[in-house]
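Q: For a teaching handout, I want to show students what a protein-ligand complex looks like in token form. Below are the inputs, and the small molecule is pyridoxal-5'-phosphate. Please produce the holo structure.
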Amino acid sequence: MVVVDPLLAGRLADVDARIDDAARRAGRDPGDVTRIVVTKFHPVSLIEELAVLGVRDVGENRQQELSGKVAELHSMREPPLRWHFIGQAQANKARAIRAAASVVHSIDRERIADAFDAAGQADGVDAAPLLDVLIQVNLTDDPARGGVRPDELEALATHVRGCRTLALRGVMAVAPLGEEPAAAFARLAGYSERLRTVAPDADWISAGMTADFPAAISYGATHLRIGSAITGPRPARD
Ligand SMILES: *Cc1c(COP(=O)(O)O)cnc(C)c1O
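A: Here is the structure, written as tokens, with pyridoxal-5'-phosphate included.
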């Protein structure tokens, strides 16, 4: 039996109230905002508790941890979880990630898009469900951070649109350190508009973490990736 930690339930309710509040202040319907709980470093037992609390969308940033948790939770079929892969992807992990996740937020170069597409075609194009993907945009000047350079966004989007087993849904970004998150999210909203000149339906904006999700909501975020505000501090990775 799953025993739910009342502190966890309290933090989740508190974050959800803040999401509602920020959405209403922005004149948006809170129902248009998907709250993804980032569970990296935390044990499967925490995900079971979250599921009891009604959480359906969970996020992980490493393939091995994602695959391991999905396998462990496999028996817990009802109700199903939607797994979001939010970390930097490597081409040689694409097949494993695709097998475990429904959404990949971190497409940032053609090679990665092609690897996910090839992983979908391996099982037959018509057999595999489309994989929802977002293009990660780098909001810093540091090429070592994940994400495509903003001036390469449309070219990458056009490439992803040509991948038969991928469904391009929108943009994703992490607010840079040392900058007002609102300014960064305002730029991201502009990149979302630019993306939609190439892919009119790709209107998801994945942005907003523990420290900055209310600002992300006011700039149109549709998918929040919230970890520690809900889960509590992350344990050290063993
Ligand atoms: C860990 C992580 C988050 C969640 O971070 P918190 O600050 O704990 O909310 C969101 N997005 C990405 C890409 C992450 O790696």
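A: Two things your students might notice: The chain is about 40% helix and 15% strand. The chain has a mean pLDDT of 94.
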